[in-house]
Amino acid sequence: MSTRENSIRPSSSCQQLHPTHLIYRITGAAAQARIVPLLQERAEVHWIAGRCQNACNQADPPVPLDFVWETHVARRDKPLHDCARVLNRLSNTVILENKAYFSHILALVSSQNQDIPVLETAVVRAMDAQAWLDARRRQLRTVQNANYTVFTDCTEDAEEWWILKAAGANGGGDVHVLPPACTHVPACIALRPLDSYVVQRYITRPLLLEKKYKFHYRVYALLRMTGVEETGRTSVDREARRARFQPWIYQHGFILRASERYHHATKCGSANEIDAAAHLTNLSLNKHCPGYPGQLPIDLARAPRTFGCMKAHWAAVVRAAAPFLRAQASSGHFELFGLDYLPVEAACAPEDMMHLDKFDSMYLMEINRLPGLQSSRQNSADEDELYDCMIRELLDLCVMPFLSGTGAKNDHESKQGGWSEVVIKDVDENMFVDLASPGDKEIHHNVLRWAMHMRACRNSVKTAICEK
């Protein structure tokens, strides 16, 4: 047997497992530090850490895993992770995290629900970014170029401000603000020629915290499955099962603000004059700045209009993405996301955090899979309290009921601690999931369906996502 063949096994002293013994594996140091102590709080369960061992020294087959929190995975371990009873991964959710893909999801959102605001966005290759900017500066609404897709929005603004983002970047990396005076992509921005980039209308009048700082909300959301039912026999004579997608959102989140005071962007003449510390609100960019307060916890139940808008956006995104997530390996699999929302200034801006419901509109800017669970040093006590509470209640909602044999919890309830179910009206067939075995070709059809959708978008000269 090759020494490259590894498997995940419990320690040798745990071969005879009592029913209350469960095997888990958590990858990633930050996730381990956050989740393992919360698992060990549960006196009714004895958790055993699964670990990688060299299979050539083990005659026994690998022991199945009960719960896996996967931050990263080696290829040799992926089959065991995929077969876990509970796994924090769903198939093909990269379409929500990749910024270029997410722009296409938002196109579907706007075509399905005219009440959800979507910013004007273009997905371009680096080599086409300058051509797109030239065309937009000439006020062309449609660009005849099959190398990129143009999405249009009803919002007109005499000030043509744009933000350029690498499709696969996270944490504020490769994000650049392009003011009206910037007629060319600055030479200081090193674009990778064959990579995809998102060019998006920049909001020049954001809602300001304390009338000083630009900010965005970081809110946590879940996508899981419920209501498993048998649907008959398949062509290979096995029981076919399906479940229904069930989105949730957490009522406690964070405010992430810029570290420098925001001034209206028209005062800047070029991209080189843009102060990233005033315009970009990502934690990774601001946490090293003097006086930065860290992530500021907020109870969104005290801002019902804000929380209602967030729920509506998440419901619309799940509905739009569901056809491309249609096949999953198990109803015990779920995924946690970090949602970033940007509110737009109202005529009467609030003076403090208690009046943040006074906004004009709100945009869902991006979605992050596997959001960080590590607190910042500036506000670690408050952040740790929120993270611990959220993960503890996530375990109660998604993990423990499934492992205890009771199935998905709260099928007929809408709240679990701070988690609130997001109701999707008029549920259709697209909201149902075909449950296949790990590695089944049906799961790979998620990727195929998305590829066919992207091809259709590329073959279309213009895709309108908002016509009002």
What does this structure look like?
- The protein has helices at 29-40, 78-82, 94-97, 99-112, 129-137, 276-279, 283-286, 304-321, 380-403, 441-459; strands at residues 6-9, 21-26, 46-49, 51-54, 67-69, 86-87, 121-125, 149-152, 162-166, 175-178, 196-201, 208-209, 213-233, 239-250, 252-257, 296-299, 327-328, 335-345, 359-369, 415-416, 419-421, 432-435, 463-464.
- With 468 residues, it is an alpha+beta fold.
- The chain has two domains: 6-84, no CATH class; 94-464, no CATH class.
- Helix 4 packs across helix 8 (304-321).
- The model is unreliable at 1-18, 53-57, 140-158, 233-238 and 461-468 (pLDDT under 50).
- This is Tubulin--tyrosine ligase-like protein 5.
- Keywords: ATP-binding, Ligase, Nucleotide-binding.
- One of its GO terms (cellular component) is ciliary basal body.
